[in-house]
Design the sequence.
């Protein structure tokens, strides 16, 4: 590991100032569960690491029906899945937060860090994408709000410009008669990376038998997590049934072109996406009925 400078500011303004003054490469540290491993093994030429864990705004979790859920970029998974508003209103977020690493990792790993790491297999990204999350970004040029489906632009690369930082992720309040779920496949139950994953959110009509809206996210099957619009479009306006969900699952697996790597083959990933989409949608529908 090469030597680098370290700063721990306590305000967003201090952080923006530090980033603007540093000529070399600057990295932000929230939980560090990805960053510290990368620093140790990738031999990156980093000049400054800024620890943002001490900034209050980045550790907050707030919810109201008008603004929805706002998760600070540095809030750890354990804080997220212990939050009463999240437990009550956002089951897909709980699904993802409870499977990222083990208990020790969950006390450090953040949804913001998972997002900025821009891994194609990011569980938090898949869950948040299915819920229509917006990424709140601040930099020397001002504020930007980036739809989560536009935030990851390549493996390990995000849409942040030089001098910008992710402050929070904002998720709309759940619609009436809505349900969500995140599901992945890994060889082991925990401490593993997804071979494939699916996030789904659906909204039913007042009779609970027709789908009014849907968002489906696919994970670990492309260079970035994918918002599967074709799958969503196949569901909207249709009555819920096993055959409809099976059709959506087939569309999902036919619209992807995954690669083969050490975790799984392309054909396995296609099969898994079909199975996971069917199961994920089924649970999302059941949750929508239960909360109505």
Sequence:
């Amino acid at each position: 590991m090469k030597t680098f400078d370290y700063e721990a500011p306590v305000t967003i303004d201090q952080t923006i100032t530090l980033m603007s003054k540093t000529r070399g490469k600057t990295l932000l540290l929230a939980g560090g569960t990805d960053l510290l491993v990368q620093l140790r093994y990738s031999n990156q030429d980093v000049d400054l690491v800024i620890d943002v864990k001490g900034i209050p705004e980045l550790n907050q979790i707030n919810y109201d029906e008008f603004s929805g859920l706002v998760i600070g970029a540095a809030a750890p998974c354990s804080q997220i899945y212990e939050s009463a508003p999240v437990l009550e209103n956002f089951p897909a977020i709980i699904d993802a937060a409870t499977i990222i690493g083990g208990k020790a990792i969950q006390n450090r790993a953040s949804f913001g860090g998972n997002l900025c790491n821009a891994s194609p297999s990011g569980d938090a990204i898949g869950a948040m994408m299915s819920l229509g999350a917006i990424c709140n970004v601040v930099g020397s040029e001002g504020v930007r709000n980036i739809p989560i489906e536009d935030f990851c632009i390549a493996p390990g690369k995000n849409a942040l410009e030089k001098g910008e930082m992710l402050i929070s992720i904002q998720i709309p309040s759940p619609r009436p008669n809505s349900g969500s779920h995140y599901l992945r496949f890994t060889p082991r139950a925990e401490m593993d990376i997804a071979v494939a994953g699916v996030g789904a959110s659906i909204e039913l009509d007042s009779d609970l038998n027709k789908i009014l809206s849907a968002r489906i996210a696919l994970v670990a099957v492309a260079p970035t997590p994918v918002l599967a619009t074709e799958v969503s479009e196949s569901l909207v306006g249709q009555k819920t049934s096993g055959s409809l969900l099976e059709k959506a699952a087939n569309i999902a697996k036919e619209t992807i072109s995954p690669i083969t790597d050490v975790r799984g083959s392309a054909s396995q990933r296609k099969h898994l996406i079909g199975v996971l989409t069917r199961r994920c949608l089924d649970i999302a529908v059941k949750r929508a009925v239960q909360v109505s």
